[in-house]
Amino acid sequence: VLKAGTTGQPSATNAVEADTLQDKTDIPVISFPYGSLKNEVQKAEMYSSLRIMGEVVGKQERAEEIIAYVEATMEDLENRTADIPESERKTVYVGGVSSAGAHGIISTEPAYPPFLWVNANNVAAGMGADHADIAKEALVDWDPEYIFIDIGTLQLGNEGAIGELKTDPSLKGLSAVKNGRVYGVIPYNFYSTNYESVLANAYFVGKVLYPDQFEDIDPEAKADEIYTFFIGKPVFSDLNGQYNDMGFKQILQ
Questions:
Q1: Could you tell me if residue 185 is left (phi over 0), alpha (psi between -120 and 50 degrees) or otherwise beta?
Q2: Total structural domains within the chain
Q3: Predicted structure pTM score
C-alpha cells in the first residue's frame, strides 16, 4: 500500500498512521508526503515521493520521466512570460476553489501555481501558501482585472461562485465582471491535487492573460497532450463535460 501523508505534518505522525494501517491489513505500507508545486520545498517533497513510488513498483524510469516533464512544462510557461514588465502584469484572482468539497467565490489559493508560472499578480498572494477563505469585502477592494473560477463550484448551484458573481450587488460591480473577464478553469483539487489539471489550467490562464506569448497554444489541445502523457489518453472533453463544458471558457460576458 502506498499512502500519501500530509505535507507539513510531522513525519513521525505519518509514520505512526502507516504502521497502524500496516498492522490492520497485514500488507506493507509505505508513507510519503504528496508535496506540491507551490514552492521549492514542497516541490522537492513531491519529486522525492514520485521517486519512492517508482522504486517500490519498479518504475523508476517513469518517475524520472514525469519529473522531467513537469520541470520542462513549468520552464516553458515561465519563459513565455518572464520578460513582461511588472507594470504590465495582470492582476488576477481564482475563486470557487474546491477543498474537501465545492466552495463559493471566497475560496481561493494564495499560491495558485498557474498564476506563479505565467507571472500574473495574484491579489490574494498575501494570504499565505495554502487554501484560504477571504472576506468578500477584500475581493471588492482588490478588484482584480481577471477572475478565474474553479468550475467545481457548479456543484453548489446558484450558491456557487458563478451564481454569486451574477447576483451579489457588490460582486456585480467588480471590474472583471463588468468587463466580461471571468473564465472557467478545470477543478484540480478536492482532498489532494491532480497535477495534470494544474499544468493544463496554466496554459489556459496564460492564453487569456497574454495571448501574444501563447499564440501557438490551443489550450484544449494542450490539455489533452498533458493528460495523455500522465494517464495515457486525452480526457479533457470527458472531464469538462462533467461541468457543463464551462472549463476554458468565458463565463460572464
A1: beta
A2: 2
A3: 0.89
